[in-house]
Amino acid sequence: MADRTILITGAAGEIGHGLIQALSGQDGVRLIAMDLRDIPKSLQRCVDASHQGDICDRAFVEHVISLHRVNEVMHLAALLSTSAERAPEQAHEVNVQGTFNLLRTAAEQAQSYDAPIRFIFPSTIAIYGVDPREKTTLPPLREFQALRPITMYGANKLYCEAMGRYYGRYYRSITRGDRQAPIDFRCLRLPGIISADTVPVGGTSDYVPEMIHASARGEACTCFVREDTSLPWMMMPECVQAILQLAEAPVLSRCVYNVASFSATAGTFAEAVRKHFPAAEITFETHEARQALVDTWPADVDCLRAREDWGYTPRWTLDEAMREYIVPTVRARYGDPRSTEGNAL
Ligand code: AKB
Fold first, then answer.
1. Tens-place pLDDT, residues 140-187
2. Residue 341 has pLDDT above 90, yes or no
3. Which of left, alpha, beta for 327 (phi over 0: left; psi -120 to 50: alpha)?
4. Is residue 155 in contact with ligand 1, taking CB distance under 6 Å?
5. Over the stretch 302-327, which tens digit does the pLDDT of each residue have?
6. Span 207-233+261-299+316-343 CATH architecture
7. How far apart are the CA of 202 and the centre of ligand 1, in A?
8. Average pLDDT for 53-64
9. I need a labelling partner for 265 at 20 to 30 A (CA). Which of 1, 14, 25, 206 fits?
């Protein structure tokens, strides 16, 4: 039997793709993919089993977890911030009830086999809520500061962090005696993530990946936030590596960790993109409601605890990431936008 049987929810999403590619074929690892959407054939080939279905359906979640005797969950399925503001009740259902179904079922399975289940939960900078007037003067936020989300997505994720901590530390504390808690809950608060392979949908930090992919395809792009809007960022390979490192870390002093590689404004990204794609047509036209969301997310976060506890280290600065990761990958994908030849793929 494999040492790790990992259930990946939201497997067909951006992070799911990256994680499955990184874990596929590793010794002692069985991968079980789950998604509401069709799981592309190219991903199905990299996993041991895949299931299409809804994490809100408790019977389905129970069936998959017990069928494969899952001992690790990487729970990526979620409605992101912009989608969640468009359908807040549905977001609550997916982001909270779906997470609860997974935690509860995993806890039951852990108890029946008397072995805790590791549960990796990507949270977000949207759990923070800073005063927009103070945003650019605040020092990088620590994990316990400014926990006042203004979005449904941020509120959902913050609550699920607390629910995970409960299952990981305090579950049935009055009656449990000296038995260990059923869930080994580990959470990263992710910044804006940029993938050179995929374009995100439904997030509010999507303006940077949109700008990069449109420019690489030779298309014009309108950025929906102001040029001076700053957020923390990391590249997809760094995100995947951080999730794997956290999942494999032996001992942790806490459940929740900030991670990010650098902080940058939308204007700085536009300059970096123009440097590599001189014909890029990037304009700025503020969407006030979406701007208001990112104005409450911190410009930077303090990652000291992740560095100390499990050796998190950013791999790239913005310039390095453009040079070593983004530009070569998008050029291989779309071709050179100045070329008159048809673009690849
Ligand atoms: C979003 O924009 O909703 C996400 C996030 C910052 O968590 N990318």
1. 999 999 999 999 999 999 999 999 999 999 999 999 888 899 999 999
2. no
3. alpha
4. no
5. 999 999 999 999 999 999 999 999 99
6. Alpha-Beta Complex (3.90)
7. 8
8. 98
9. 14
4-191+235-258 CATH fold: Rossmann fold (3.40.50)
Does the annotation count 166 as an active-site position?
no
Contact 105, 65 (CB under 8 A): yes
Set 113, 128, 153, 312: catalytic member: 153
For residues 171 and 182, give the distance between their C-alpha atoms in angstroms, rounded to a whole number. Answer: 8
Cβ of 125 below 6 Å from ligand 1: yes
Ligand 1 near 43 CB (within 6 A)? no
Torsion of CA 33, 35, 37, 38, to 10 degrees: 20
- The verdict on the CB of residue 80 being under 6 Å from ligand 1 is yes
User: Domain limits of the chain?
Assistant: 4-191+235-258, 207-233+261-299+316-343
338: pLDDT confidence band, cut at 50, 70 and 90? low
Measured from the Cα of 190, ligand 1's closest atom is: 7
CA distance 273 to 234: 16
Rounded CA separation 256/189 (Å): 7
Distance 93 CA to ligand 1 centre (A): 18
Residue 57 CA to residue 37 CA, distance in Å, equals: 14
Measure 63 CA to ligand 1 centroid, in angstroms. Answer: 30
Are 4-191+235-258 and 207-233+261-299+316-343 in the same CATH fold?
no
